Amino acid sequence: MIRKRVTEMKEWKALRRHYKKMKDVTLRQLFASDAVRAEKFSINDGGIHFDYSKNRITEETVSILLELAHARGLRNEIERMFRGEKINETEDRAVLHTALRNLSGAPVIVDGADVMPGVFSVLDRMRDFSDRVRGGRWKGHTGRPMRNIVNIGIGGSDLGPRMVTEALKYYSRREMNFFYVSNIDETHIVETLRGLDPAETLFIIASKTFTTQETMTNAGTAKTWIIDHLGSDKAVPFHFVALSTNADEVNRFGIDRENMFAFWDWVGGRYSLTSAIGLSTMISIGYDHFVSLLNGFNDTDRHFRQMPFEKNIPVIMALLGIWYHNFFNAETHAILPYDQYLKKFPAYLQQADMESNGKSVDRSGRRVNYQTGPVIWGEPGTNGQHAFYQLLHQGTMLVPADFIGFARSLHGAVDHHRKLVANLYAQTEALAFGKTAEELRAEGVPERLIPYRTFEGNRPSNTIMAELLMPVTLGKIIALYEHKIFTQGVIWDVYSFDQWGVELGKTLAEKIFMELEPGFSGDVKHDSSTTCLINYYRSWQ
Ligand code: G6Q
Fold it and tell me: Angle 266-270-271 (CA atoms, 0-180°, nearest 5)?
């Protein structure tokens, strides 16, 4: 069935007309004319305070955006995902990361079978294994307990667990060290293994397919390292476990089937951190904290599924994104966590969002005639303030931003934390309201400097606050973004759960890999640039 293009929908056209009215309206005006604007445009639910009042919107804007979501069939699409329908159409798969944290156990049926018993069984095995490793009861080949945990994976099998392990470091087992190796560049594994004692090192090979070039190359190097240092290939089963859907390849590598933690084709890589892919995180923070994390995800899953759209945080986040990307032509979106533990959060979201919605063909196979997924980027505050915020405040681009912070610190010094939060709030205020020439004159700023020191303001932001960075809070926040991405995919009418765009480079790399070999005698057939580059490399071998 050919679906109506979103640009042809009457709600979209209404937004276009509405944009003309709104484009010159300032946040100064909007706040001045409504004393309760902050309350009106905030949502408090489940310990998350979401303030979206510093956006260039009125009640009318929100209401047309909500109509668009309804007209696009969002409610039905959400149900289709949660019910396990095969909404990943181009790969013919269900999309059920929500089942991974469905701790109530309510049945979720895929191909006629309930997936929940399998989910619980893997979770139990992860619990048993992580308890043994944490408790020093999992012994290496020489009888020593494991102190270094090295997760080898890439993309979805790396960014999620790496981000969460870092974010929840406060709750971690401090006597253990956690490392993540992803890059095919040997530097990554060489520098990681330098100084580690093989007898105390456990490798977790995280790969859904167990065929990914980077992961298998790094896993092979790790295996050689273990065998060379511990003197026997009998050491391998003691020092390697696998997170995968491919039991045959895992076995071929030399990992016992009982040391493989499975997941399923309905778990997409970038949505897999609550599956077995989270094993390194569970070893770090322990089973109970991991379950709290899952509960946080589950809370947001329920919020997303049940809340009316006007009180639905991910839906509002998504619609605000549409408003800026499609009507104000904003091309990027900044993620600015004011918490050092969340330093990997922007990089994680970069994959979640850009791999999901970086698409240009709609669900009817047509090229889209509107902008889809934005560039996602960011760094923790306050570091970014001394680097790129200049462009946010005075550059020519409109960059909508999410500020994320916590009301209490995990550490003792009130001074640090109060300064941190003061900076967060100050930035959103400065972005929104700027500083006028009149204000500068009143401060005695010389006339010739006024143009340079003026801040236009009117730069939108969301503020997401919670009490404290706890596993449950983190789960809630991550899931907000997962569902924001889903919602935008529905409105843009793209398939958010495939990633065909990563394939071409992989195939070409295999071909070029052979051509780079000094002894290669076949024809190198590329464009002149690529051929010259290949010859350059070969000339140095
Ligand atoms: C994520 C992608 C991709 C994937 C990696 C690793 O959604 O599918 O990032 O996670 O390519 O794949 P494997 O887990 O199969 O090694």
Answer: 50
Catalytic residue from among 10, 23, 419, 506: 506
Distance CA 8, CA 330 (A): 21
d(CA 351, CA 349): 5
Q: Is the CB of 245 under 6 A from ligand 1?
A: no
Mean pLDDT, 10 residues at a time, over the chain (541 residues)?
Answer: 93 98 98 98 98 98 98 98 97 98 96 97 98 98 98 98 98 98 98 98 97 97 98 96 96 94 97 98 98 98 98 98 98 98 98 98 97 98 97 98 98 93 98 98 98 98 98 98 98 98 93 91 90 94 91
Is-catalytic flag, 435?
no
* 154 in contact with ligand 1, CB cutoff 6 A: yes
Residue in this structure with the two tokens 């391998």, named with its chain if needed: 236
Q: Taking a C-beta distance cutoff of 8 angstroms, is the pair 404, 339 a contact?
A: yes
Q: Is the minimum distance from the CB of 269 to ligand 1 under 6 angstroms?
A: yes
Which residue from 250, 254, 182, 244 is spatially nearest to 217, judged by alpha carbons?
Answer: 182
Residue with the smallest CA separation from ligand 1 atom 11 is: 155
Predicted pLDDT at 436: 97
Q: Give CA separation, 458 vs 27, 326, 405, 415, in Å.
A: 5, 18, 21, 30
Q: Is 188 a catalytic residue?
A: no
Whether the pTM exceeds 0.90: the reply is yes
Catalytic residue from among 20, 175, 386, 503: 386
In the residue annotation, 416 being an active-site residue is answered as: no
Quote the ligand 1 centre to 183 CA distance (angstroms).
13
Which single residue is written with the structure tokens 């045959």? 248
> CA–CA distance from 162 to each of 210, 347, 517 (Å)?
19, 10, 34
Residues facing 401 on adjacent strands: 334, 461
252-263 burial, b at 16+ Cβ within 10 Å, e below that, comes to ebebeeebbbbb
Burial 397-434 (b: 16+ CB within 10 A, else e): ebbbbbbbbbeebeeeeeeebeebbeebeebbebbbbb
Whether 473 is in the pocket of ligand 1, judged by its Cβ within 6 Å, is: no
Asked if 119 and 527 count as a contact pair (C-beta separation under 8 A), the reply is: no
Collect all residues with Cβ–Cβ distance below 8 Å to 31 and sequence separation of at least 6: 37, 53, 432, 433
| 215 C-beta closer than 6 A to ligand 1 | yes
**pLDDT at residue 524 in the model:** 80
Closest atom of ligand 1 relative to the 209 alpha carbon = 15
Q: Is the CB of 157 under 6 A from ligand 1?
A: yes
